[in-house]
Structures are given as structure tokens and as C-alpha cells.
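fold-stage: in
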Amino acid sequence: MEYTLIRAVEDWPEDIQIDKDQPLFVDTETAIKEGETDGGLYGEVRLVQLYQKHWPEDALIIDCKFIPLKTVLRHIKPYQLVFHNGSYDLHTINCATDELWLPDNLDDTIYLSRLALFNKGAQFDLYSCFRYCKIRREECATLDKKELQKADWSGLLTEEMLQYAALDVIGLCELYERVEQAKETESYKLDMVNLKYAVEYSRRGVAADQKLVQELLLKAVREAEELIPSLPVNPNSPKQCCELLETSSSDAETLVRLALEGNKWARQIKRARYLVKHINFLHKYNRPRVYGFFNPSSAISGRWACKGGDRFTHTNLQQVPRELTKVFKAGEGKVLVYMDYAGLELRMAVAWTGEPVMAELMRAGEDLHTFTTASIFDIPKAKVNKVQRNVGKTFTFASLYGAREGLIGSMLRTKAEIILPIQELRQLRERYFDTYQTFKEWHSFHEGSIRTYGYLDIRTALGKSVRTTKATDSLAIPIQGSSAEVTKVSLALLKSRYPDENLISTIHDANVLEVDREDADLWVDRLNECMVEAWYYVIKDLAIPDLPMPKEAEWNYTWNFGD
């Protein structure tokens, strides 16, 4: 395989021209960015690889140590650019640009492959897709791809590294030809809109109250400095903790169980581990503005994801601990407008299956969890206490996707510090499905199909297909995927109708805007409008197409909504 390494404008081959009517295949290799990353993930773009089908088998590899990345971006922007997992490349590129950079015409073979090759496997990294399509190249056999992915791309480029860089972008051309038929699907078009949008609002970040962060950090560090040295073991060493506790495991569930039984060491180890994580979060938040790389379809279900990579300024803004949401705030003269879909996945499951009992409760605006708790404990609703309601709520969400009594018991112990005997958990689960018979029939169909055929092909509300081999996946993926489609449609509506929006985060079932204080009520109405309309659009062909979704947008000066 040939390639041309370009380190000056005159290195560009005279016989290679970019055809504006053909897709241009693009890949990047990234390296550590001194002072900004501690690794190459979302680091500095070192190489940009280009290829078009009509070229000789000759990839162009542009070395951005010699030719500025901005020059390359300006040159390729007008063309139809095709990436594989373009979320990574586009986010990384935008870390290096002063202004938002997006191609005029974008395609992504990871999204296309998930649609066109859904029945081939569960992994859609580039080499898995090559394997599904039998795209084989002699060079593949001689390259250690895993090692090259971890290589230091900031220094001397070896022949192996350059061969690897060229191989990916040439293979990408072949892959695109195998999967491009999925371009016209609604699912793909929606993902492309949201991919571009995610790159845009990932640049915005959210303001952090550094004074509050530092106060919380100081308090946590002082407690940790007092607690951890007093322990006879390293709390983060499973081996040492197991020996001290005389157990085979020191996981969260074991620590909770032992702590509830009065074991002092288990309680203190649990607290020490919490403090270490808490301090790590606060260190990430200790800056004027915190960012995350949002991806509209990272998971196989199509759910949103957010990452920080190796960048010091970035973290997962979808997993902010509840007790730390208060450290995020609106900027001067601004407020945060927030709306989450009330029980989005549960409502989606009801609309999907046509579950009549739960649908009626939702229409009536009743407290679903209190009703469920009263049903499974066989007590009047007025007698339901806080602990029982917590159990009922856990059963509602865990049972939805096929969790058995053992897993539900584990969830109760770990998350709510509630211990129930397995026999009682089994009885409560049976009563849950006696109450919601349609869910029981839905589960039976999926479990039976997987048992009989070994797999079940499912589809989301907007047509994304996934092959599943576990009943829990076949139950969860269409609901989670359809719920993600609701969020994606809501954001597509928001962006198209109100181009001056200022979205700063999306968290599976919630969206957050930062707006001028005087416009807060206007944006509350706009967010309500787009999110509720998206709900009805996605469920329009389901069993209950008119299941209500409350309008619950609100505004606040901090991210501490609902507290």
C-alpha cells in the first residue's frame, strides 16, 4: 500500500485532485497535548489522512506539525466528508479551533454500519466493521493495531505508524460503499443532525462556582486525611480489604451489607472510597468552566454519552453526582433552564406495550410509585412508608427490563441500604407482574423468543434495528433507544426553530439551556414546546400514541433543580 506524507504544500502530488462530487474519506491520529491532556485521547491532532476512490491506492497523510491544522480544515470543509466515529475526530478538531468547525456535508460510517450491519455483531469499531464486510488487506496481518492505537504520535513517525494511518482511511472508502444504503433512514438523518449539534454545544461548557468547589474540596480532603490513615488497610486495595473483613469480596454491596450489620471497618472503608471519588470529581470541577464531549449515539441502543477523554478541562457531564450539581451555575446575568421528561423510559414502555393499568395512572396524574408499592406489599396506599416506597420504586424500574429478585435485592442493598430476604423479593416481584399483566406478557414473549431462536431482532420507534441475544437487552434496547430518539427529536426541533438557543448539556432525559435572565420564561415555554412535541412525534405509531407527557421545564440560578 502506498501513501504520500505531506509536510509542505509542494508535497501534494500533482496527479491527485479532490473531486467535489465524490465523498472524501477522513481520519485523524491524535497525540498528547502538553499542558492540556495527560494522554492522546482527545489530544492534539497530529495527522489528517485523506482518500478518494478515484485516486490511485495512495492515501494522503498530512502532518500537522508542519502544515497548520487550520489550513487543512479550511481546504476540506466544502467537501462531503466521511468519518468513522466522527464524534471523536470532530470534538478533537474543535479543541484546536477558535471558532466552531464543522464540514458542510458530513457522513459517518459508524452510524451507517449500525443500521446496515445490525445483524452481524454488537461491536462497530472500524476493524469490526471491516471484518463484517470481509474487507481484508494484506497490510492488516503485519500491523499490531492495538499497540499502534496506543502509540505516542507526538514524536517520530515510524513506517508502521504511517502504514496504519493510511490503511484506516483507504478501508473506510470500501466500508462506506457497503453501508451507504442506510443514509436515507430517519434514524441516520436524526443522528447526523445531533452529531453536528453535539459538537457545537460541547464547546460551550457550564460555569462552576469555584469558591464553593474549593470549600467542598477542602472539607472532603480534611475528612479523608483524618479517616484514611486511621484505617489498617488501603481502602482501595480489594485484597487488603477482603483480608480485614474476612470476606471474598469488598465490593459496594458487601460493604453496605456488613456496615448495616454493624461492621465498623466496612463502614469506614465505604466512606473512604466515597471520599476519594468525591475529591476526584471536585478536582475536575475546580475550574471556571467545565466541558464534556457529547456523543448522540455512543451506545448500541442509541443513547447519549458524554466523555472527558484525557483532557483536564473535560469530564462526563451526564454523571454529575446529585450532591454536586449545586456547584454548577449560570453565568453573570444568566439562568439555567432545565426540563427532564417525567419517567421517560417508563412512559415509553407503557406507550410501547399498551400497559393499561399504568397508562391509566399516568393519565390520572397519580403517584405511580405509591400505587405500585401498595400493590406489591398488599397494603392501602395511605399506609405506604418511605422505605416501602423506595422498594416499590426500585421494583418499577428494575423489573421493567427483566431484573430478577437477586439483582433487585442487590440494587436495594447498594443504593438504598435496604436488606430483604430473597423469598420476600420473589413474592414482591410476582405481585408486581400480577399488577401489570401486559408487562408480564411482554417479558414472556422476549424470553421465549430468545430461548427458541437464540436471538431477537428489535426496532426502536423510529426504525433503528438491533440484534439482541439476551432477553434483558431485547427488552431494554427498544425502550432506551426510542427514549433517546425523543431527546434527539427535541434537540433537532430546538435547533431548527430557535437558532439562538444556548444548550449546554443533555442528560439522557433532560436538557439544560443557559439564557439571559429576562428571557427565562420565554425559553421555558420554548423548551416545553420542543420536548413535548418530540414525545408525541416518536410515539405516534406505538400502542398508546396519546400517552400524556407533563410540561415541567423550570429555571434556576444553579443546576440544583428539584432540591
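fold-stage: in (second)
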Amino acid sequence: MLSITVPVNRRAYRFDVEFSPADKNRIVIDIFGKSVKIEPGMNLVRVGETTFPLSATGVPEKLVMIADTCSIELISGKGEAIMTAPLLCDYNLNKMLITADERTFIKSLTVTELIPR
């Protein structure tokens, strides 16, 4: 099992995840007490009981996620599908955890702290 822990502050974050579209395994991102489950082989993302297509027009390869004080926003592919999941996030949890089956191939992962101007 792949497991990556990243310390986080009480701020908003942007996650850019690129993965193998043929991967049948699940990638889970836990942040502020909420889980986002990415399932490339099934072309979907799960946030709680809500599902969302990774790609509406082609092969799923990329997901952008923005997590802030009261929601998680998901943007698939090149922006062809967008979902906002209104959630109350727990800022007392100061780490983000990414887990995946050891056979999962994550091409790239970028985590950016969004600082208000």
C-alpha cells in the first residue's frame, strides 16, 4: 500500500493529480476529515455518497481538487466537468493523507497552498 502524509495548515489547498487512465485501483485523498476517492478504471470520483465523472469527453487522466473551509471542488480533465461538494471541514486535522494500492501509478501530484491576497 502506498501512503503519503503531507502536513497542512488551516488554509485552502489545490491538488493536481495525474494518473494512469487504465488503472483499476483507487487513490484516496483525506484532508480536513473528508475523503475523495479517485477511481480511474471506473471513470469516477466519490465524495461521500456523491459520484462525479473523471472525464465527460474522453479518457480520464487528470483531476484538480480545491479544498477550503466549507467545500471541496473537483474539476476533471480539461475542465469539462465540475462539481462542488459543500462540506464542513475539520481544520483541527493538520495532515493530508494520500493512500493507494501499491500497483497504482500516479504520474504526478502537486499540492499548492492557496494564500488569500
